[in-house]
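Appendix B. One record, verbatim.
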Amino acid sequence: MNSHGDLPLLLFSRGHGDADFYYASRFDVESAVYVRFAAGDDLLVVATMELERARSEARVARVADLAEFGWRERADPFASWSELALRVLTERGAGAVVTSPRLFAAIYHALADAGVEVEIDARLFNEQRRRKSDEEAAAIRAAQRAAEAACVEVIRKLAMAQCGSDGVLQLDGRPLTSELLMARAQLVLNEHGHSSPDMIVASSPGCAQPHFRGAGPVHANGPVIIDIFPRGNASHFHGDLTRTVVPGTISDAFRRMHDASEAALDAAVRVLRAGADGREVHRVACRVLVDRGYGTITKGFEGNPAGPLMKHSTGHGVGLEVHEAPYLRDLEYPLAEHDVVTVEPGLYLEGLGGVRVEDTGMVTADGFDNFTSLPRSLDPRAYL
C-alpha cells in the first residue's frame, strides 16, 4: 500500500487539480476525504452534490456522503473536515495514518491534538506517478497534440500581422496583443478538450524573463516565446511545449541564440535513456551553450556572464502536474523507463529578450520517444 507498513493512507483534497488526491482516487474535487485502509479497501467521502459524480468517476471501493459520518457545518471548514476524518478513523480503530506532505497544517494539528499519529510521506506516489502507463502516456500525447494546435494558431496570427509605424504588430486594424493571442490559443485548446490558463505568449523585451506570461502589444522583429502546457479536462494529464518565433526580420543575435538552444536540446536528447542521470543531461545542454559563447547559472558552466544566459534547468517531469519528478537539473536524479520529461534549453538577456525551445517525450530503455512533432524554426512561415 505504501512505504509505512500497514498504516492507512489519509488524504484531503486541496482543491481541483490536487494531483496526489486524484492519483489515489481518480476523482477531481474541491473538497473531500480519501482513506485507503488496504488494497481494495478504500473510502471516498464527498458532499451530497458530488455523490453521483463520484460514484461514476472515482475508482474506489466505497463512496460515501459526508452526512453518513455526522458532518457538522462550522465557520472553520478545516474543523469540519478534521472531525469527519476522525470519525472515519475511529470507526475502523485507526490511531495512526500516513499522509501527503501537502496536508493542510490546520488539519494536521487537529488530528495530532486528537491523539492520531500522523506520518508524512515526503515521496508519496513519487515513483508510481513517474512510471507512466500506456493510458497515461496516451493522455500526455493528446495534451501535446492540443498544445501544438494552439501554438500553430498563435503563430498563424503572428504571421498574418503587419508591422505598424510604432513597431507594434497590427491585425484587423488593431494592435495584436498577448491577451488576444492567448485567448485564441485557449479556444483551440478547449476545442481539443484541454485548457491552459497560465500559458505564456510573451514578446521582447519582456520574454527575457523566462516565466513572464506576456502582456500588451506584441512587437515586430523580436522573439515571441509561446509556452503552452495544457491539462486534459477529462484525463487531467498535461503536455508541455515551447516554441519561439520572430514575426518580421530575424536578427543574427536571435538566430545564434536559437541555434544554440536547439543544439543544446538535441545534445540532451541524445543522452536521454533509462539509467542516465538527469544532472548529466542538464550539464550536456549547458556545455553546448557555453561552447557557443553563452552562459548558464550552473556551477562549472558559467561561461560568458555578460551575454545571454540559461537561467533555469534543462527539463522536468510531466504528468498530473506540469512540473513533477524527475528533474533535469544540477541534481543527481537517475532516469527510468516510462519517465515523461521536457527538454527545454533557453537563453535570455535583459533589455533584449529571450528564446526557448521545448519538446516533451518519454524516456525509453535506449533513448527518448519524442511526443512533439512541430518544427523548431524562428520563421513563423515554417509552421503554416
